[in-house]
Specification:
Length: 396
């Protein structure tokens, strides 16, 4: 895999429930609901009705926001509750439910899942060094050193190795400070957060080493195993890929005019932002991920733990493994966003309500005005959060 990430890859733009919490309520089947007696039955039915009214309001408000958006929109949006679509919306020339998109930085959630699956099978140790997996450093292996013990061996810059202290955990959380071979690390590994597409490209290389397969082949197997039709790893220009995969929506870039993107997907880009997927396939991935069907309980907890605080468009954000975490107002939210030339994306998951949003676009707005670029994303997120908080308050 080439080490350079193509120039068009931009920095990713990136509870205490009651006895009748929503997570419990909506797992109950109709038979259980009928079995409730007296006041409990009234409370149960009231809470279901309350949440149903909120989801209907969310659906209506999202539709209105997209319809009335002052910015051009082309893409596919799915809103799901417990995996069942509440809203499926497509807009734009040639866009339909089967349309595929380059998912940009949402790719990192797939890559993080593959890394954690390798952890679950004993192929990886997240506290081991990057150099150990890429180069099999004999001096480190012979002494059985972990990254914490190798940390003192940093006085000499080795042009054929990365900083000896960098671990897989740090790459997953964007805290490694990794730079290209032959360059000093950007900062002391683990000391701060700095979003790194290159770091996720290196994770793709680690997966290739331990699984003895190309990253693209691993993605293909992952898609087949979990029936994620619409997920693939392709290489080449968007025009060339579209010729092979007609369902790929051709990316459009807004500048003075709206024109086809000149994006090229290479091997380095795939793990960080270059995977292709349809909105239903990404929704199916999310449902399996958050239903503990892809990872062990321990690995899922690692993924959804707030390992580091980050600065982002939204306040009070933290980063886990391949996802962002927010717990403002007691509402747990797992999210990620993405931006590439020709494509934008956003995903939101609210575990208390088992509610998901997937938003994939084949039109990237001009970055000269970032507030405008992400105005619709921010608006849709706020719509969902405000209605869910109202539902929580009405049933407190």
């Amino acid at each position: 895999m080439r080490l350079s990430v193509i120039s068009t890859l931009l920095t990713g733009l990136l509870l205490f429930p009651s006895a009748y919490s929503y997570g419990l309520l909506f797992e109950a089947d109709s038979g259980q609901a009928r079995g409730l007696q007296g006041g409990n039955s009234v409370v149960f039915e009231s809470q279901i009705a309350s949440f149903a009214s909120k989801t209907a309001e969310i659906k209506s408000l999202i539709q209105a926001a997209i319809k009335d958006s002052p910015q051009p929109f082309s893409g596919s949006v799915i809103l799901l509750e417990r995996g069942k679509p509440l809203l499926e919306l497509q807009k734009g020339e040639g866009i339909n439910q089967d349309s595929r998109f380059v998912m940009a930085s949402l790719s990192k959630q797939i890559t993080a899942t593959l890394v954690l699956q390798a952890l679950d099978t004993g192929k990886l140790d997240l506290n081991q060094t990057l150099n150990h997996y890429l180069f099999g450093d004999l001096d480190v292996e012979a002494r059985g050193l972990k990254a914490t013990e190798a940390a003192t061996n940093t006085s000499v810059l080795n042009p054929s190795r990365y900083d000896a202290r960098i671990t897989l955990h740090q790459l997953l959380t964007h805290t490694s400070g990794v730079d290209k071979l032959g360059k000093a690390n950007r900062f002391e590994p683990g000391s701060q957060f700095e979003y790194s597409n290159f770091g996720y490209s290196l994770l793709g290389q680690v997966l290739e080493k331990v699984n003895h397969q190309s990253f693209a082949e691993q993605v293909a197997q992952f898609a087949t195993r979990y029936q994620l039709n619409g997920l693939s790893a392709e290489l080449g220009s968007i025009a060339a890929i579209h010729a092979k995969v007609p369902s790929l929506a051709v990316g459009l870039q807004e500048s003075e005019v709206i024109a086809p993107s000149d994006l090229v997907l290479d091997e380095a880009l795939l793990p960080a932002g270059g995977l292709i997927i349809s909105a239903p396939a990404y929704a199916a991935f999310l449902q399996q991920l958050h239903a503990d069907k892809l990872l062990s309980a321990e690995s899922y907890e690692r993924m959804t733990t707030a390992h580091t605080e980050i600065q982002f468009l939204w306040p009070n954000m933290h980063y886990g493994y391949g996802l962002r975490i927010n717990k403002d107002d007691g509402l747990v939210e797992y999210s990620h966003t993405g931006y590439l030339t020709g494509y934008m994306s956003m995903t939101l998951h609210y575990p208390e309500f088992n509610l998901d949003l997937v938003m994939l676009e084949n039109l990237s707005l001009n970055l000269n005005d970032r507030a405008r670029v992400f105005e619709l994303h921010n608006q849709i997120r706020q719509i969902i959060r405000s209605q869910l908080l109202l539902a929580k308050a009405s049933n407190a």
